[in-house]
Design brief:
Elements lengths: L18 H5 L2 H10 L2 E4 L4 E4 L2 H8 L5 E2 L16 H10 L4 H5 L2 H16 L3 E3 H6 L1 H11 L6 H12 L7 H31 L5 H7 L1 E2 L2 E2 L2 H32 L1 H9 L4 H11 L6 E5 L3 E3 L2 E3 L4 E4 L1 H4 L34 H18 E6 L20 E6 L2
């Protein structure tokens, strides 16, 4: 397969070249979905796929659309069957619904602790003071690393999901140099943790992975390190933006906020609708393994294919009132966590954290609003949808 080395999912679409479009890309997605449901982007050297049924087709066919990009990165995210299934089955032992649900009281305690000092002020920067720290603390504890390093983790994981500032060669190279440094730092950090655990096993995920076997073979140190990095980045970024995007919706639609405060039973379905309406991940990359025809377009083997779940989640062929936020929408077959064999491993944990944070906020606050004069800045990423900070003012009900 003639794989390209320039990863299209790091390069911004020219259709989203203003801050306003990046803060709300869905109008552009809708136009592309209707006008060019499958199109080749010459600037990014990739195919873009926008309709729900086509996005789902790409994501559920790993034999046609491979996750592998280059041989140097064999983390779970960039792995195809059968090794993908073997490693995923192993890791699922640590992420059973029962084990995740047992974390609920502790997650609630973390949320309360992070929130407590802000209640009297009636203001909180949601990203930096709640939605950012909480998932990093939880993931760090699960993996078995000090939560005191969470600021370092947050900074490095932000770099790993960052996109190029534009579609120039210089911007792409600058980005890849930044990512390489971040990977190197995280590799060394987690390799030290693995070495410590080999001498002193504990009740954490690193120790579980050290002891595990796949078909009689132990995982290599590199396998364990890469999985820890994946878990840190995916568990951190997805949940931070899920929480922030949910609160952003409630601030943008005050009547919705009041309705959910009065009917907390809507909170789980509100989390699901956030994943559809303002998904943390809007695009997922694959590489065609063979020639494929999609919507009359011929995709050649080795070409990159970007599946725009952010567009698919607004496809009116699939979702009635697709442009409306419906807090009790059922069924809700969104692809906010992806689809197929790479469906987000941490989805149960992200859902739990999202639900608990919304319950905690609505138990203590009323009339949450974006602080007057705040200028939102989008995260610099072509595949992550979120904002860099979100200052909220509110009335405390404590």
């Amino acid at each position: 397969m003639n794989q390209t080395t320039k990863y299209a999912n790091y390069i911004p679409m020219r259709e989203l070249n203003t801050v306003d479009q990046q803060l709300y890309p869905f109008n552009a997605y809708n136009e592309l979905l209707e006008q060019t449901p499958v199109r080749y982007d010459e600037n990014r050297k990739c195919w873009d796929v926008f309709r729900y049924e086509d996005v789902q087709y790409v994501l559920k066919n790993p034999k046609l659309f491979s996750s592998q990009r280059n041989r140097s990165n064999q983390s779970l995210l960039y792995m195809d069957p059968p090794k993908h299934k073997q490693l995923r089955d192993l890791v699922n032992q640590a992420f059973t619904p029962k084990k995740i649900e047992q974390l609920a009281p502790h997650i609630r305690e973390i949320a309360e602790d992070l929130l407590r000092s802000h209640l009297a002020n009636g203001r909180i920067d949601l990203v930096h003071e709640l939605a950012g720290p909480l998932p990093v603390i939880v993931i760090a504890e699960l993996i078995g690393v000090p939560t005191s390093d969470r600021h370092k983790f947050k900074h490095l994981s932000d770099l790993l999901v960052k996109g190029a500032r534009d579609d120039s060669e210089e911007a792409f190279q600058e980005l890849m140099d930044e990512k390489a440094k971040a990977h190197e730092e995280l590799d060394q950090y987690f390799m030290n943790i693995v070495n410590e655990r080999r001498h002193d096993l504990k009740d954490d995920l690193v120790s579980l992975l050290i002891e595990a076997e796949i078909e009689g073979q132990k995982l290599s140190d590199l396998d364990i390190v890469r999985f820890c990095i994946l878990l840190l980045v995916a568990g951190n970024e997805t949940t931070t933006n899920l929480i922030t995007n949910a609160v952003r919706i409630l601030c943008e639609q005050p009547e919705l906020q009041q309705r959910i405060a009065e009917q907390p039973s809507f909170i789980p379905t509100t989390v699901e609708e956030t994943l559809r309406y303002y998904p943390p991940i809007v695009a997922i990359g694959r590489v065609a393994s063979e020639e494929v025809v999609l919507q009359g377009q011929t995709i050649q083997a080795g070409q990159q294919v970007i599946s725009w779940v952010g567009a698919a989640n607004r496809d009116e062929r699939k979702f009635a009132q697709s442009e409306q936020f419906v807090p009790d929408r059922k069924p809700n077959q969104h692809m906010g966590f992806g689809f197929g064999i790479h469906f987000c491993l941490g989805a149960p944990l992200a859902r739990l954290e999202g639900r608990i944070v919304l319950e905690t906020l609505l138990a203590h606050m009323r009339e949450m609003k974006l602080e007057a004069g705040a200028e939102l800045k989008p995260i610099q990423s072509a595949f992550v949808f979120g904002v860099q900070e979100y200052p909220v003012v509110f009335d405390s009900i404590d």
